Amino acid sequence: MNLTPTELKARLDQGKDFRLIDVREADEWAVAQLPQAELIPLSRFQQLALQELSPEETIVLYCHHGMRSARAQGFLKAQGYANVFNLTGGIDAWALQVEPTMKRY
């Protein structure tokens, strides 16, 4: 399941209950991040995600362009997590479509 940047923005604006997880690395996180996001880098994702994320939660994952977060999504789905979304185009698409003042890299 995927979400577009505008769909994610609507969920944030509506105060929907979900966890927003950034799977980029800390150096990328330092450049820019989405509101309410938590960092669980892909390099440590398999180790940390099962400890920090519940299968009952709705989870939205993102990275720079959507590829790494798609891998993290596949991992969680394989572990039985049902409500896992991937941000199409990642934070780069968010910057282009929702927040044009956001720093891009």
Report on the architecture of this protein:
Helix content is 42%, strand content 16%. It has five helices and five strands, in the order E-H-E-H-E-H-E-H-E-H. The chain is globular. It starts with a strand and ends in an 8-residue tail after the last helix. The mean pLDDT is 96.
Percent of residues in beta strands: 15-25%
- In terms of per-residue confidence, which ranges show pLDDT below 50 for 5 or more consecutive residues? none
Q: Pairing-aware structural class of the strands and helices?
A: alpha/beta
User: How many DSSP helices?
Assistant: 5
Helix content: 40-55%
Report Rg: 13 Å
Tell me the series of helices and strands, N- to C-terminal.
Answer: EHEHEHEHEH
Which strand order spans the largest sheet, edge to edge or round the barrel? 1-5-4-2-3
Beta strands, count? 5
- Biggest β-sheet description: 5 strands, parallel
Overall mean pLDDT stands at 96
How widely separated are the two ends?
A: 26 Å
How are the SSEs placed, and which strands pair?
Blueprint: E1 2-3, H1 5-14, E2 19-22, H2 26-31, E3 37-39, H3 45-52, E4 59-62, H4 67-78, E5 84-87, H5 90-97
Parallel strand pairs: 1-5, 2-3, 2-4, 4-5
Q: Briefly, what is this?
A:
The chain is built from 5 helices and 5 strands; from the N terminus they run E-H-E-H-E-H-E-H-E-H.
Keywords:
five-stranded parallel sheet; 105 residues; 5 helices; alpha/beta
